[in-house]
TrEMBL record:
Transmembrane segments: none
Lineage start: Bacteria, Bacillati, Actinomycetota, Actinomycetes, Kitasatosporales
Name this polypeptide is given: FAD-dependent urate hydroxylase HpyO/Asp monooxygenase CreE-like FAD/NAD(P)-binding domain-containing protein
Gly residues bias: start-end ranges: 8-17
Domain of life, source organism: Bacteria
Length: 523
């Protein structure tokens, strides 16, 4: 039998005792994950409860769902609300890649994040990219405010410090088991966990525990603490995580060499911002035939037509065709600074259109579509800010940063250093290797008999949750009844692409909160 898990309102270590049922009527909701997805769920749920009939709002919605009113909402995460992997790094060099105007936690208040920053005395424009820690502080502030507002309703909102491992379903409710053996009882569970397991780069599977290998550049403090001054570092990757790693290393006096199979750096833009207008060509995506063998070409045509609504300048003149990655970076940064780049204006609208299209596609078709556009996605959807582009170019100009022409064919650790062999190049030696290839998407798995849902691979045989319906509820298999377990955020990648797009995450959180707070929940 597990122990009950509790914490104080501020997310302290809390106390533990024997597992016990809470007396009295009401439903207990557990939200697993304290990042953007989990925090947004809590915010929307409290707002829905405040707006319920009898609270002055209501909007004519039905009363509390079967099982009674919500009496508690527990947010489970080992870190304070907001301060997880995505935004919880206090290093000011690490910026959000999205504009402040699209970073709101509230689906119906897009300006909430900008308003929060201005409340803090910061002069921030809607298109500005702020340090990620600002987003973490915003999440934490809004969680604290929601907790106080919930108290007015007699609803307990608390942060439980711990890492959830599994959810066991039963007729008397669910048990959320934490890594330390404690358990939480829940009537409903929302899984809102993000990424946490780094990818394993080619050639380095045998070195995951090597003291001269860092499995990710986060938190930034690890680089400062573990690397001696002036280290020569091989950075594995060339996309957003690798850009972060290069900026951190070069700032702190190290030399960085970036390498990846593609050798491509992301394109350059000011920021990922809200759509600047409506795009009828993208609205046509929802009417495309999912079985059309030319679907990929039609999607691409809709995207190109949308860019043309912003400018008649051909796309080939909005990007660089230079073969050398640094020259391409230099030319694309200049284009952004000249105001000669319009394609970024469609990106959020394009991702939203593909998110809406995905559920209508037969199994495997969206994966094929994503594979077809992977090179474009890698460069343009995850484009870097022009500010970071200039920083990279400055480090390259100083000799602190370079890009390898090819990916290592052989790697060994010999005589106190990494020995790296690349095609067409002499062997090189590096003091440290930093993996910056990104993170694996989370996969929910049932255990062998379907009695427990694991947030990672379960012990022994089991099967993965590979599909979610529109209600975002977990099922044990096709045609099975939905469990009282919802998924929000990155975990919905089995249903939609770009599952980590913040606007998509917030919409999902709002949807789930409305169902939990004000509607009958089918069983």
């Amino acid at each position: 039998m597990g122990r009950t898990a509790e914490s104080d309102g501020g997310g302290g270590a809390g106390c533990a005792g024997g597992l016990r049922e809470r007396p009295g009527p009401g439903r207990d909701v557990v939200v697993i994950g304290g990042g953007v997805a989990g925090t947004s769920c809590v915010l929307h749920l409290v707002r829905e409860l405040l707006d319920a009939p009898g609270r002055g709002g209501g909007g004519g919605r039905p009363g509390p769902p079967r099982g009674g009113r919500i009496r508690s909402v527990l947010l489970v995460d080992p870190n304070p609300p907001g301060w997880g992997l995505a935004f919880g790094d206090r290093d000011p060099l690490l910026l959000c890649n999205t504009a402040a105007e699209i970073n709101s936690l509230l689906a119906d208040e897009p300006g909430d994040f900008v308003g929060h920053l201005r409340e803090q005395g910061l002069e921030v424009g809607p298109l500005d990219c702020v340090p990620r820690a600002r987003m973490a502080a915003y999440c934490h502030d809004r969680f604290d405010r929601s907790r106080a507002r919930a108290r007015e309703l007699g609803v307990e909102v608390r942060h439980v410090r711990g890492a959830a491992e599994s959810v066991t379903a039963g007729p008397a409710g669910h048990r959320v088991r934490l890594a330390d053996g404690r358990e939480l009882r829940a009537d409903e569970v929302v899984v809102a966990t993000g990424v946490h397991r780094p990818r394993v780069p080619d050639g380095f599977a045998a070195f995951q525990d090597h003291p001269r290998y860092l499995d990710s550049p986060y938190p930034a403090a690890r680089i400062r603490e573990r690397l001696p001054a002036g280290s020569n570092v091989l950075v594995l990757g060339s996309h957003q995580s690798a850009i972060d790693a290069a900026l951190l290393l070069c700032r702190d006096g190290h030399r960085a060499t970036l390498t990846s199979p593609s050798g491509l750096l992301p394109a350059v833009r000011v920021s990922l911002a809200a759509p600047v207008r409506a795009f009828p060509p993208l609205e046509r995506l929802a009417r495309l035939d999912p079985a059309d063998p030319l679907l990929e070409e039609r999607v691409l045509r809709c995207a190109v037509e949308s860019v043309r609504l912003l400018s008649r300048v051909p796309l080939r003149r909005q990007t660089s065709r230079a073969a050398d990655p640094l020259q391409r970076l230099r030319e694309e940064a200049a284009l952004v600074e000249e105001g000669a780049v319009w394609w970024p204006g469609i990106m959020v609208a394009l991702m939203d259109a593909l998110i809406a299209l995905a559920p209508s596609l037969p199994p495997g078709r969206m994966a094929a579509l994503q594979a077809r556009f992977a090179p474009l996605t890698g460069r343009y959807v995850t484009a870097m800010t022009s500010r970071n582009a200039r920083r990279l170019l400055a480090h390259a100009g100083s000799g602190a940063l370079r890009l390898a022409g090819s990916y290592p064919a052989a790697v060994a650790f010999e005589d106190g250093a990494w020995r790296v062999e690349r095609p067409g190049a002499a062997p090189e030696r590096f003091d440290y290797a930093v993996n910056a290839t990104g993170f694996l998407l989370p996969t929910l798995c049932w255990n062998h008999d379907g009695t427990a849902l694991y947030l990672d691979a379960p012990p022994g045989a089991g099967w993965a949750v590979d599909r979610l319906e529109a209600d975002l509820r977990v099922r044990r298999g096709p045609g099975a009844a939905p469990e009282r377990i919802w998924v929000v955020g990155v975990g919905t990648h089995v249903r939609v692409p770009f599952a980590n797009l913040l606007g998509n995450v917030v919409r999902q959180a709002h949807q789930v909160a409305r169902e939990l707070a004000g509607a009958e929940i089918p069983v």
